[in-house]
Specification:
Layout (H helix, E strand, L loop, with lengths): L1 E7 L13 H14 L12 H18 L10 E5 L3 H4 L5 E7 L8 E5 L2 H5 L16 H11 L2 H4 L11 E5 L10
Antiparallel strand pairs: 1-2, 1-3, 2-5, 4-5
Length: about 180
Amino acid sequence: MNLYHYYDKKKGPFKNLSDCSVDEANRILEKIKNDSPESFCAKWNADYMKMRIHYEEILRKEFVKKGGFIQRFVPHYMVVEQCDWLASWYENCGFIKIPLEKFDKRTISFTYGDSHPTFSDKINDGKEYRKKLYTYDEIVKIIKKYGLPQKWNSDGEYGPERYVEVHVWSDDPIAEYL
């Protein structure tokens, strides 16, 4: 299994809005809207950072409940395997591919789909992977059962899940790319 991180080549990899103050993050998002109005990120609404902080609190609490090892307050984001849709988010997209074996599995969690719709109160379709965070062993079972969303839902026709999101709660092995 490989984990992928997609990013804008002009900005570099693993630039995490959650590492900034909310005001700074909102200034960055406003700059993206002005400089790259066609990018996916430019379409996020004004409450994006408020929602992101909320969902990251849920991720952190759920991961701690499962015995996860948190070395950073907010996660780095990656996805399981290649996802062409994520490449379309950036005008000048790059990606980093890191084999799962390089990570301490105690420092990574997963959601089947993006964490925002996974934990959103607006989506109540009864799917078993809603409102759930998974460890590595747990997500492997879900992937075996349902497959990778980017394979069966590449265009989003069947719901919001388009990839398996990975939350890396450590700077290892990401530090070599920063």
